[in-house]
Structure formats: C-alpha cells, structure tokens
Amino acid sequence: MRILVDANVPAAETCFGPLGEVVRLPGRDMAADALRDIDALVVRSITRVDEALLAQANKLRFVGTCTIGTDHVDLAALEARDIGFASAPGCNAEAVVDYVVGSLATLAERQGWWLSERRVGIVGVGNVGGRLWRRLDAMGIPCLACDPPRADTESGADFVDLDTLIDSCDVICLHTPLIEHGEHATRQLLNAERVAALAPGSVVLNAGRGDCVDGNALRVRLAGRGDITTVLDVWAHEPGIDAALRDLTAIATPHVAGHSLDGKLRGTHQVYQALVRHVGLPERVTLGELLPAPPVARLELDGGLTAEEALRLSLRAVHDVRRDHDSLQREIRRQGVAKGFDHCRANYPLRREFATLEIDLKSGAKSLAPLLTGAGFRVANG
Q1: H/E/C letters for each residue in 267-310?
Q2: Is there a binding annotation on residue 303?
Q3: Cβ–Cβ contacts within 10 Å for residue 140, how many?
Q4: Is 153 marked within a binding site?
Q5: Is residue 130 domain-shared with residue 275, that is, in the same domain?
Q6: In the chain, which residues have pLDDT < 70?
Q7: Are residues 196 and 79 in the same domain?
Q8: Neighbouring C-beta atoms of residue 240, cutoff 10 Å
Q9: Active site residue: 135, 209, 219, 259, which one?
Q10: Is 67 annotated in some ligand binding site?
Q11: How far is CA 213 from the centre of its chain?
C-alpha cells in the first residue's frame, strides 16, 4: 500500500508506516499526478480534494482528513468513485477552546475588564462550541447560544436566534462549519447588516470558517468607527488574506487555533483507526504511544494572586496567543501575506493543551479551584 500524507501531519510514519510506503508532500503542492498509484490519501484542510485532484487517482481507495471540518472535500466525488472517507471530528476541539479562552483573557487584560463581566454569545455548539459553552459556564461566565439546526431537533435546548444573540451579548464567538446553501447556510452569516448592528465595545471572535463573516464589512466598521474588537484565526481566501483587515484585528492568527500537538496527534490517530478498519487490519498503534510528556507538567500556586492573575499565569504556562499574533505579523513583513501565512502554519511551534498542565493549589489559593478547573486545567489539592 502506498499512502500519500500531508508533510505537516505528525506521527504519520509511526501510524501508517506499518501499513505500507508513506509518501510525504506539502498540502498545497498536492496535484493530480501525485495521486497516481496511491492507495490512500491523508490531508489537512489546505488541500482541496475534488474532481481535479482525483483525475489521475487510478488506485485510490481511501481519503482521510485530519481535521474536524470537511468542506475542503468533495464527498460526492469520492462516493462516485467508491473511495472510502474519514475525518477526525473533535480531534482539535479542546485546542480551539483553549485558544478562545486565552484570547478572551488577553483582551480582558488589555482592555481592563474581567471575563465574568461580559456575556458571551456562541454561534454553533458542535464539537467546539459545545465544549466552549460548558467551559465558560464552569468558569462563571454567562453565555447564550445560537444553533438553528440543533434548535430544530433538540427540544428543550436553550437556544436563541442570531439577532437576539447579537443584541444581548458583548462577545460573539463563531464556531460554525461553512454551509453554502440551504435553510441553515452559514456563508457570510455575520453579514454587513449584522456587523453594523454590533454594539460599541463588542468583541467578534471567529475560529470557525473565514467565509462565515463578511470581512469587507468588518474592515469598514473597524477602519471607520473603530469601536469594536476582533479576534480572527480564520480568513477568507487563505493564505492570501485581507492585509488591511489583519492590521485592524486585535489578535490575528494564521488558522492555528486547533494546532495543539495533542489535537494533531488525535487527528492522525483517528484517521489511522479509520484506515485500518477500511482495509480490515487490526489496530496496533494507540494514542497514548504518540503523546509525549508536556514540557511544563506542573505549576504551584499559593496566595497573593488575584483570580485574573492566576488564570493568566496558568494560561501562559501552556500557550500565549500573543506569540501567534506576533509571528504572523513578523512573517508577513518578511515574506508577504500568503507566504508569511503559510510559513507560520508550516513552522508552528510546539503547543500543548491546558489539560496537560496540573496546577497544585496551596493553602492560600484553594478558592481558585473552580475557575482553573473550569478553564480546562487539572487541579490538585483543590
């Protein structure tokens, strides 16, 4: 078996090597001729799997994407060729929630407010949004949620419509897939009218899909009135993103919210599990074998810290979102927009998830347990 794998998929040799020959290529360099005599293809979101890519796929029988989203894959084209498919739902959801919590804590520090003083509106409560809702609620942060497909099927669920959410919330977090058409289409869900309706002081955070927001309207609002704040990890036309919008964005990152090592390895392993099932072989590699020990495994906290200080210290012991923002700015200055964007993604530094850090609370810090546990850390002596 010959398996073509995106060059930035980790642990591919460990997982797929025992199944056959592993061939590596950068995701943006995958073209039709690369799929000749390939039995299985493993990609990330930057590779568009469509009719054009499949044109010379004479032996392909399986495609896996190490991502939650599947909008980069033409599922009908795969089905027409009787090619098996698997994604990795939930693989990096915890990492995205870490990113959101860290970004909001950073904005709160910059702007002089505390998280519990804001109401967060979550648009889309699937793998990511649902986890975010539970985590923020555990931290004592009030939330509202909008998810029309779930509102249609989940009786008794506490959802509001999007316009009510915009009217009622200080922070809008978008975590929807990109759905082009139909009753629940999400393309430009946050359209020009809704961008205009945002109250002064609002925060818009998008870690879902770039095309779910009208970027032009957002740029005009930021450049004109300048009275809202944006955190953008996803962009229309990646990697050739709107440089003017990036310059106006408080935290601008290159589609890396889910790029924890834990999430990436989970995604690789989920696709590996699907492939061995597809070919009828036993599973021989466990996720535990792939995960290394974290570089910072334990943190001790005692009295003398405010809740805000303790949370920021714990967050930044694992991941500081300002690093990702600064890296994007630096590489775009050096290489230009598209090359700088892709460089940051391809060379993203080691990042672990909040759950890999155990926090030892001494006698003077016991009261911090609910906040830090809610934020996603493992708390000892709480």
Answers
A1: HHHHHHHHHHHHHCCCCCCCHHHHCCCCCCCEEEECCCCCHHHH
A2: no
A3: 12
A4: no
A5: no
A6: 155-157, 381-382
A7: no
A8: 14
A9: 209
A10: yes
A11: 16
**What number of residues does the chain have?**
382
User: Is 209 an active-site residue?
Assistant: yes
Q: Is 378 a catalytic residue?
A: no
CATH of the domain at 37: 3.40.50.720
Q: Is 258 annotated as a binding residue?
A: yes
Quote the pTM value.
Answer: 0.90
Element containing residue 136 per DSSP (H, E) = helix 127-138
- The verdict on whether 255 is a catalytic residue reads yes
Q: Which of 94, 135, 194, 238 is catalytic?
A: 238
Catalytic residue among 118, 175, 194, 255: 255
Report pLDDT digits (tens) over 22-54: 999 999 899 999 999 999 999 998 999 999 999
Residue 115 makes CB contacts below 8 A (sequence gap 6+) with 104, 105, 108, 136, 139, 141
Q: Hey, what's the torsion of the CAs at 140, 198, 214, 89, to 10 degrees?
A: 10
Residue ending a domain, choose from 290, 310, 340:
290
- In angstroms, what CA-CA distances link 260 with 59, 235, 264, 318? 33, 19, 6, 10
